[in-house]
Specification:
Blueprint: E1 3-9, H1 17-25, E2 30-35, H2 44-52, E3 58-61, H3 71-84, E4 87-90, E5 95-96, H4 100-133, H5 146-157, H6 162-169, H7 173-187
Parallel strand pairs: 1-2, 1-3, 3-4
Antiparallel strand pairs: 4-5
Protein name: Recombinase family protein
Organism: Roseibium sediminicola
Pfam family, one: Resolvase
Length: 189
């Protein structure tokens, strides 16, 4: 029955020191460290840590967001740990899944986190809809003007190669292909 710690920060410039101190203070015998975004589900140190832990071990983290960024991902990891007979202890939120109360509390936190994400997503969609109603154009500015797109289509119709058109406008060949393909799709109807 070992205590195994996992520490993660999002960027190279951030320090793992505070998390490492907490994990060492909790008695962790082994530490897995990572400098990678929590959104990335394929984190090598986390995968190695999940392979390393054995039945009876406890995975210790400082905060839930160090392990997962979504309720679904968190519950997936907790199930993976549970299937191996490994408990999860979260130091800052005082959660320990080695007992029923800890498992229930973690489940409730995950539900509330998902609810918060859903509400945030709804607000974002409402904001986007209102902006569109007001005529706000969303997304990146077009690389080519309408006139340049028309010229690109004309040049393509005159037999110019995609790369030559791309070089002419200083854009990628893919953008020219997309622009010229739109013409064919539209004119096909």
């Amino acid at each position: 029955m070992a205590l195994v710690g996992y520490a993660r920060v999002s960027s190279v410039g951030q320090s793992l020191e505070i998390q490492e101190e907490k994990l060492n203070g909790a008695g962790c015998e082994e530490l897995f460290r990572e400098k990678r975004s929590g959104v990335d589900r394929e984190r090598p140190a986390l995968q190695e840590c999940l392979r390393y832990v054995r039945k009876g071990d406890t995975l210790v983290i400082s905060r839930i967001d160090r392990l997962a960024r979504s309720a679904d991902h968190l519950l997936s990891i907790v199930k993976q740990l549970d299937d191996k007979g490994v408990a999860l202890r979260v130091l800052d939120q005082s959660i320990d899944t080695s007992d029923a109360a800890g498992k229930a509390f973690l489940g409730m936190l995950a539900v509330f986190a998902q609810f918060e994400n859903d509400i945030r997503r709804e607000r974002q969609m409402d904001g986007i809809a209102k902006a569109k109603e007001k005529g706000v154009k969303l997304g990146r500015k077009p690389v080519l003007t309408a006139e340049q797109e028309e010229e690109a289509r004309r040049l393509r119709g005159d037999g110019w190669a995609l790369q030559r058109i791309a070089d002419h406008f200083g854009v990628s060949k893919g953008l020219v292909h997309k622009t010229c393909s739109v013409m064919r799709t539209v004119s096909a109807f």
